[in-house]
Amino acid sequence: MSKLTIRVFLSPRRVKEKEPERWQEGWPTPAGVVLTLTRGAPHGDEEAAHRGPITLDASDEEGLVHAKGLPCGRYRVDVLPGDGPAEFTEALVAHGAADDRHHIEIPEHGRADVEVVLTPGNDRRLFLLYALLESGEPLAGAEIKVDGHTKGDVHTFTSASDGAVYAACRDAEVTVIPCAHRGARVVPRDGQFEIDRRTVGEGRPPEYSVDVYYLPAPAELSVTPLLNDTPLNGVVFELTRADGRTDEPERVTTDAINPTCVFEDVAAGRVTVAVVDTSAVAYGTTRLPVEAVPGRHRANVTVRAGDETDLSGSFAFRLATTATGHLEGDVTDGAGVPLSQVAIAARQEEDDRLEKAVTDAQGHYAFRNLPVGNWQVKPARQPVTVGGRKLLADPPEGVTATVTEQRTTLAPDLVLDEEPHVIYGFVRDETGAELAFATVEFFSADGAARLGTTQASDKGYYEWHAPSAGRFLVAVASQDGRPMRRFPVEVHSRMQVDPVYYLDGNSGTPSGGSAPPAPDPNIVDLSTFPVLTEEIGGGGRAAVGGGVVDRAASFGQTVENALRDVLGWRPGSNTSGFQAALAGAFELRDVQGHTEFTWHPRGYAVQADLGALTGAQASIYQRAKNALDQIVPLLDALVPLDPAADPQDTEAVRTIVRAELGELVDELAVEGGPRIRRVDELFTLLLGNRNPGIKLDPDAVGGQLAQLRDRFGLSTARIGTLDEERIVTNFRIVVDHVLALAAGWEVDRALFSGTSDQTALGTVLIQLSRSLDVVAQSVEETVFALDSVFVDAAQRQTIQLQFKDGDPSTTPPTPPTPPILLSDLLDWVVRVSTAEGPRLIQDAGKDGVIAIAPMLKELARLVLLTEGLAAPLNQGGDRNLPEGMRTPRVRRALGELRTQLDDTVRLSSAVQRPETLEIVFVDDVVRDETTGTRTVTVVGRGFQTGSRAVLVPEGRAELGEVRSTDAVDLSRAGRAGFTFGFLPAGTPSAPVTWLITVVNPGGIRSNTVDALTT
Q1: Across the 1014 residues of the chain, what is the mean pLDDT of every consecutive 10-residue run?
Q2: Mapped to the 3 state alphabet, what secondary structure does 355-392 carry?
Q3: Spatial distance between the Cα atoms of 131 and 6, rounded to a whole number of angstroms
Q4: What is the rounded distance in angstroms from the CA atom of residue 212 to the CA atom of residue 130?
């Protein structure tokens, strides 16, 4: 079988036919060139000269043309008219020619490598241009005119997908005239310019290219606000950037003349269009007020250059028929003095509505026509500056009032007081321990006046409210009257100061070189608590609180597991189901007066903790097992065809191949997925190094199978009888089985490289089972570490974990996590990881994993918060916890437990139930008059990135189906756009109705709805 490879080049200039220049590195290798081969008439075959030329496939991106199965002989090479780059109409063979520069010779059962140069005709020269955007991205479809300064020598060229323009002109000096891009509506950045082929070529290769840059066109966004198909006047829309740019928001108001809001010259990027005001809108003859529907009052969209997007479908309006009332109140300072010109904000969380007002001279504010419900009133911004004072709301979240229908509600007075100036901290001695009940004194900046005194708590904590912001002196009072060491503190709001009181009576500065270095916590750990020398683990029990949790399965659970594995049946009260499962799992036979039974496993189940061998692993394992059953008899029956073959060598290689095939099947049955490197290595040992791009060929196999072929002499050249041919055929069958398994492994290999939505459920459950067992063991290690620092089971039942994760500054305020006992938290983790989690997953499968995932996530969060409470005091730890919980060994054990829980959360999150794929309706169909394509926009749910759409003609099967050429455009959730090419048109009497169906990457198809009519 002959094979032919042709590489096509573009010549930058005219070459002589008798002495064509060999191609040079860097010459363009165009794609899409179609060559023809015309066979010459051999001697005695005059009819062959009249046969038509052979048309080859178009050249690929590297300019290569491949062909095989061509009859041997002499062929003329030509360019198919109308294809390839314009003006390159003559093909000369630069390398691999027969006897002239137009013909090639194809040998019989050989390979021919030919290089063909396309030359510009009529003494033309090549100008290689590139159409690019300013960002450097290639611009396809851009038209560029090239004027050769010769009468009539003006040609228009179009850029390819990579932006390349192959222009050919007679003159060496030309003018390049970039034209507007029709699709994206862009304009040239630099305008027309001149280039000289002779100047460009000086000192540079002749294929030197010139870049032609374009500016992206601005986009346009439009919205037509409608209520009952009636345009609304007076709606104010605002456009803001959402990509980090600080452009001023742009506002447009609709009116009777322009009922459509249009934002022009919008730069590409992420923007938000929102309704900001509907107070001027009046609907109908009764002039009813109108409001935007919450949730449909804004649209976030990614704008591309040249887009013309209508966002009307993203907005909805309704009559403001909600019952309303009025809200009034007063704003004062801490002394009761009214505060004027204070901006007040009232927020209703139900509709995410925000209203603003300003207090008058009497400190009074009023909100009119507010929807009934609870409203939170507080300053619009804090702190509020009034008369040079900075005031904060007390309480910070403001006041709450309930608006009732057709009534005026008086809100509680909103009190704004000055920002507190507080000095706080902990008093410690030189060892770093807290000093209980110490006296802390505060002085003016010059030390002349003592402003206050406070006493620390039993934990050494103190707090003092300064009369104002400024500079003060802080000192710890001496017990024997000796002089105290004072140090300055600058306070404006809250300032933490931790003074050190030395045993000699002086109080030291909280920072500086005089303070002794803090002791190494690891040294304190080793010197204070016992060294961990006991053996951890064993016995399957974890003492967490006052009791012991038994991790061994009960007898009932053991029986249920046995029934699942043997019968493939979930135990229950259905006796008929049990009998059916029993009859399907065992086959009874009467043999010579006694009964024998044979067990038939249900499915391809392998003993596992929570999962089974399913999905892609079950498929490739069963194929490998069946192949091994067929390969072993054929392998054992092989007989050497080489009379000089050594029996010991042939038997040795046969044994090696048989053993490696067995290892391969066993590896594919490993619980939790096979080891990828191991399977790759076994295939390499059997088949040798393989290129996935090369087709399967039993005669070109390598590895141990090649060694088996060579030692047995299993080649076609040694076949002399039918029995010998049968032996070679058996060897080829063995190789075909292994090659087919290798091809299947290449397809499924990615499914075993991690946990994704394509991974089999059984594999994920096995990994989740192991991860849950590791979590339980991590609890045992944490308990052992706690015991070693004298935090025993009884004490763990009294340690209450007070979490401080709430955030009162948010709206609404985030409450802190309720407290929990340390023993209860550890017991919760053990029960979920050993009993509740495995049982729920076994009984409910995927739904059980989805149900247990939030619980695992919550446990991981609680352990993370506990780890923060056990941090050192200077890192925000809880001082109410025993000292042993702040030791490195306990914190390290908690960190390991949290890491294992995070891993379990990751595995459980990989199991998802996809949303149902459904098309609700077709929203829009847009036809591009230039290209003839149609873009169909559908509204529904379950669309995924990479989805495709199919158009099927209703009742016209002969027209075939049309698939979308572009991937799904998920610009907004629930909407997807698909682009289709040419659609056959019907007749006025018999139009064609096209039905659309969406197909997700997993092959799941949606329902079918009417899309368009042609």
Answers
A1: 83 57 64 84 51 83 86 86 59 78 83 83 74 81 81 77 78 79 60 67 54 82 91 92 77 90 86 90 76 89 84 89 83 87 85 82 89 87 80 85 87 85 84 83 83 87 84 77 69 76 53 44 57 48 44 60 67 58 74 77 41 65 85 88 84 89 85 79 83 61 86 81 86 88 78 59 72 86 87 87 74 78 90 83 75 86 88 82 85 88 82 76 85 87 83 84 77 80 80 89 83 86
A2: EEEECCCCCEEEEEEEECEEEEEEECCCCEEECCEEEE
A3: 28
A4: 6
Report whether the peptide linkage leading into residue 383 is cis, meaning its omega lies within 30 degrees of zero: yes
Say how many Å lie between the first and final Cα of the chain, rounded: 48
The Cα–Cα gap between 685 and 664 comes to: 11
Report the distance separating Cα 320 and Cα 283, nearest Å.
10
The length of the chain in residues reads: 1014
616: tokens are 């892609």
Domains for the chain: give ranges and CATH numbers.
3-120 (2.60.40.1120), 125-215 (2.60.40.10), 219-319 (2.60.40.10), 324-418 (2.60.40.10), 422-518 (2.60.40.1120), 569-602 (no CATH), 615-752 (1.20.120), 761-909 (no CATH), 918-1013 (2.60.40.10)
988 backbone dihedrals φ, ψ, rounded to 5°: -55, -30
Strands of 134-260 (E only): list them: 143-147, 154-158, 164-169, 173-178, 187-188, 193-196, 209-215, 219-223, 226-227, 230-231, 236-241, 250-253
Report which of 616, 623, 914 is spatially closest to residue 750, judged by C-alpha positions: 616
Nearest 5°: CA angle at 224, between 220 and 226?
165
Residues 6+ apart with CB under 8 A from 205: 24, 26
**Residue whose pair of structure tokens reads 């100061």 in the numeric block:** 497
CA angle (181, 186, 190) in 5-degree steps = 100
pLDDT recorded at residue 261: 94
C-alpha distances out from residue 905 to 300, 825, 860, Å: 31, 17, 8
Alpha-carbon span 216 to 427, nearest angstrom: 65
CA gyration radius, the chain: 41
Alpha-carbon gap, residue 353 to 379, rounded angstroms:
16
Query: Strand pairing of 164-169 and 125-133?
Result: antiparallel
Per 3-state DSSP, what percentage of the chain is helix, strand, and coil (rounded to 5)?
25, 30, 45
Strands 975-980 and 934-941: antiparallel
Both structure tokens of 348: 């209703």
Q: How many CA atoms lie within 13 A of 159 on its CB side?
A: 28
Q: Which residue has the tokens 């979930």?
A: 570
Q: At residue 70, what are phi and psi to the nearest 5 degrees? A: -80, 140
List, in sequence order, every residue forming a beta bridge with 491; answer none if it has no partner.
470
Burial-class residue 490 by CB neighbours within 10 Å (0-12, 13-18, 19+). Answer: exposed
In the numeric block, which tokens belong to residue 701?
């196999």
State the maximum Cα–Cα separation within the chain, in Å, rounded to a whole number.
Answer: 132
Q: How far is CA 158 from CA 33, 129, 165, 733, in A?
A: 15, 10, 6, 53
Q: Which pLDDT score is estimated for 515?
A: 41
What percent of the chain lies above the pLDDT cut of 70?
77
Shortest CA distance to 888 belongs to which of 521, 517, 536? 521
Phi, psi (rounded to 5 degrees) for 303:
-95, 135
Task: Return contacts of 839-846, CB within 8 angstroms, 24+ apart.
Answer: 839/557, 841/610, 841/765, 841/768, 841/769, 842/564, 842/610, 843/570, 845/761, 846/761, 846/911, 846/913
Q: Which two tokens stand for residue 88?
A: 């390159």
Cβ atoms < 10 Å from Cβ of 226: 15
